[in-house]
Amino acid sequence: MADQRTLTFTIPSEREAEIRSTLQEVYNALKEKGYNPINQLVGYILSEDPTYITNHRNARSLIRKIDRDELLNLLVRNYLKL
What we know:
Blueprint: H1 13-32, H2 37-47, H3 59-63, H4 68-79
């Protein structure tokens, strides 16, 4: 019989601060280059295609250091204000 337990996912607060800072840097780099940062970040999150993110200010390299599951976890928690 399949395991019926629910898996839990937690992110240490230091990592959360690091992800927030990195995401802000990527956002700023996209904005500086004239892109719509929200649209570009959503495209990246959905596809994991790094070409949605500019190389400007090393943003593409920075965003690839963030695990997509961690990022989605933080986004949902912050959206729900948990």
